[in-house]
């Protein structure tokens, strides 16, 4: 319990302001997140679109901070994002976005939904479900483990190695934690089982190909909808004139696909032209820029270090992951 109090009290030191003050009193929102997390980006994007003040507590996913007992007490699933609003704890990106939409849409705070009951509202729900249900973890790590299936991955070799080693490192860490923290043993073992299942999938090129085809189908459905935006609808976003939660899901998806090289394939030879134009326009939104550039100061400082210093910092922050690189390589070959 003392350890938990120590970690929670350190929030004050670890929390950084991510949005300029939007009101005198603010709203007291704290987001437990990681700057590179696909699901965290959705929530950050929504918060910026709604111009809400919030603070970030950054969780080091590669070091396995999400498995530490103090965080398991906040979210037994050991996942980010988690939003804290006073005494309320809301996990899961979709639930968080719905929560802030339901509770922070008064006055000058813009809504991210069309009028309920409208055709546009139904269309938005369908497209959001289509995008949110894509196997993004399988596709992301699948392309990292099978680079021949994608275009140019926009990650450094070091970043790729760290992500590849993550599975073995976390498996070992969860085994160790389950023995030391009996109170959370079941949570750790469930998480470990899920990671092992995912690792088996991402190292199977056939499964990865299925995931990529699912994404391609979804993007073609988006293109079909965008094609219908003619005349007065020329400047519409995905489902209506208003930028909605479905747009947030789509923009974060497109950003991730670009990062892992799949837009090189999906957009090749001017395929999906309306979607390409949509993405160019979306990237100009202030909320998009703020979301995708969060943490830039930290990342730029890291990039400026020389090679020896970079390795020192990397080992210091993700030691257990890099130490497991050899194990991960063995497991990759064993499962092929």
Q: What is the approximate shape?
A: globular
Radius of gyration: 21 Å
Strand order of the largest sheet: 1-3-2-4-5
Overall pLDDT: 85
Helix content: 55-70%
**DSSP E strands, number:** 5
Number of helices: 17
Which structural category do the helix and sheet elements fall into? alpha+beta
Domain GST N-terminal: 27-108
Family: Belongs to the GST superfamily.
Keywords: Membrane, Transmembrane, Transmembrane helix
Protein name: Ganglioside-induced differentiation-associated protein 1
TL;DR of this structure?
The chain is an alpha+beta fold and 336 residues long. The chain has 17 helices and 5 strands. 35% of the residues are buried.
Structural account:
Keywords: Membrane, Transmembrane, Transmembrane helix. It comes from Nephila pilipes. The chain crosses the membrane at residues 311-332. Residues 27-108 form the GST N-terminal domain. This is Ganglioside-induced differentiation-associated protein 1. By secondary structure, this protein is of the alpha+beta class. Helix content is 60%, strand content 6%. It has 17 helices and five strands. The chain has helices at 2-9, 11-14, 38-49, 69-74, 93-103, 119-132, 136-145, 157-180, 185-202, 205-227, 245-259, 263-266, 273-282, 286-292, 296-304, 307-323, 325-334, and strands at residues 15-17, 29-33, 54-58, 82-85, 88-91. Strands 1-3-2-4-5 form a five-stranded mixed beta sheet. Strand 4 (82-85) and strand 5 form a beta hairpin. Helix 3 crosses helix 11 and helix 10 (205-227) packs across helix 13. The chain is globular. Residues 1-27 and 297-336 have low confidence and may be disordered.
């Amino acid at each position: 319990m003392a350890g938990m109090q120590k970690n929670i009290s350190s929030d004050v030191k670890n929390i950084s302001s991510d949005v300029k003050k939007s009101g005198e009193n603010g709203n007291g929102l704290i987001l437990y997140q990681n700057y590179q997390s696909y699901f965290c980006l959705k929530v950050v994007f929504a918060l910026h679109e709604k111009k809400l003040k919030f603070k970030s507590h950054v969780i080091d996913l590669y070091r396995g901070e999400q498995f530490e007992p103090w965080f398991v007490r906040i979210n037994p699933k050991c996942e980010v994002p988690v939003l804290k609003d006073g005494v309320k704890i809301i996990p899961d990106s979709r639930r968080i976005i719905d929560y802030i939409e339901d509770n922070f849409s008064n006055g000058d705070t813009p809504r991210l939904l069309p009028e309920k009951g409208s055709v546009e509202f139904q269309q938005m729900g369908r497209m959001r479900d289509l995008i949110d249900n894509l196997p993004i973890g399988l596709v992301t790590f699948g392309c990292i483990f099978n680079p021949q299936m994608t275009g140019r991955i926009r990650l450094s070799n070091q970043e790729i190695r760290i992500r590849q080693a993550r599975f073995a490192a976390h498996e070992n860490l969860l085994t160790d934690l389950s023995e030391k923290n009996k109170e959370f043993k079941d949570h750790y073992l469930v998480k470990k089982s899920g990671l092992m299942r995912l690792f088996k999938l991402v190292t199977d090129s056939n499964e990865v190909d299925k995931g990529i085809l699912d994404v391609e189908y979804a993007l073609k459905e988006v293109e079909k909808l965008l094609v219908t935006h003619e005349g007065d609808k020329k400047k519409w976003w995905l489902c209506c004139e208003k930028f909605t939660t479905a747009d947030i899901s789509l923009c974060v998806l497109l950003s991730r696909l670009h990062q892992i090289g799949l837009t090189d394939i999906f957009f090749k030879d001017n395929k999906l032209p309306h979607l390409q134009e949509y993405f160019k326009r979306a990237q100009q939104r202030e909320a998009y820029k703020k979301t995708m550039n969060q943490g830039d100061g930290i990342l730029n400082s890291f990039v400026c270090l020389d090679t020896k210093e970079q390795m020192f910092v990397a080992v210091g922050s993700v030691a257990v992951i890099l130490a497991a690189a050899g194990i991960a390589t063995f497991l990759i070959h064993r499962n092929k």
